[in-house]
Write a structure and sequence with these properties.
Helix content: 25-40%
CATH superfamily of the largest domain: Medium-chain alcohol dehydrogenases, catalytic domain
Shape: globular
Mean pLDDT: 93
Low-confidence stretches: none
Strand content: 15-25%
Bound molecules: zinc ion
Length: 383
Amino acid sequence: MKTRAAILWGEGQDWKVEEISLGDPAPSELIVKTAYAGLCHSDEHLVTGDITIPQEAIEAMGAPHFLPCIGGHEGSGVVVEVGSGVTSVAPGDHVSVSFVPSCGSCHWCATGRQNLCDMGAGTLASGMLSDGQYRHHTADGTPLNRIAQLGTFSEHMLVNEASVIKVDKDLPLDAVSLVSCGVATGVGSAQNRAGVSSGDTVVVVGIGGIGANAVQGARMAGASNIIAIDTNPDRKEKAQEFGATHFFSSFDEAIGAVSEMTRGIMADSCILTPGVTTGDLVQPAMDVISKDGTVVVTGLAPMQQQEVGLSLFNLAMWNKEIKGTIFGSGSPRVEIPKLLRQYQQGQLKLHELITQTYTLDQINEGYQDMRDGKNIRGVIAFD
Ligand SMILES: [Zn+2]
Ligand SMILES: [Zn+2]
């Protein structure tokens, strides 16, 4: 079938909206009519080159090239067609996508860690998960990669069953699209990875689409002090709306206040969710946490970056830990329905995250607004 999608042809270029063709769904594949797609910072990393994959790695994944690529890895929609053997969804079902697929049978899925599913290995570049073949092409037949095996910046998506999760039909699909990446990652960073519990002091660095949700994850877990740090003073109001008790524009400003509010003990955890995570953020994060405290690194870092400023002496002597996280260290098939239940019960704020909606054709405007710091989350609304 023919559909329209936003494609990135080269680093530093605008997204180009054009007609593409989708093949028929093979066994285990399905077509979703997209309802909403979130404009996440991770797609911007692709434009800036921060997550450009070395050519050897692309070839190792079985793809001749990375670009052109259909963008978008947050989204929701309605199933319109399923291939043979698809059992978890049927036409008419509402679904959330998941940027990490979950096959259900690999070692990681079987041990309850679907966010580490082996199928995730091919999510940045390659053909379809089922057979490695390309079924997305431009009008002139050029094969297209899709971010995270999804490509939600498209009116229709052809995806593997492992990449979608059925949701209740009474849920608004804009809310559903949000939980599929930023919300699950932010809330999970606080609750699953930092292990925030009642009475904790938590520092969240970078109040964008992930950080705002780390703040609300800490709030829902009962944290007493939630310190938001962002260089953009306009983020203060949003941070407070999601539960921040304090706001500072730098670590330097925050550290004395954290010491004072904890009587010198310092924070239980610090979650790094800036637009781009850099190695120089690690030591200040380690300085703001207490003995036995935890630093969680959530925000994407440039792929080639290896330098980190860190006192290994203090790491060991103060019994501290640094943890990474993907998908907030939870399983998509557990976390997405759980978060949507919490939204329905008024515990989780979702609509408050959407600062602006755009059409597919306004995608570059949406990303410019993100660069200008105007958006917590911009969302593309399809008709
Ligand atoms: Zn994302
Ligand atoms: Zn798996």
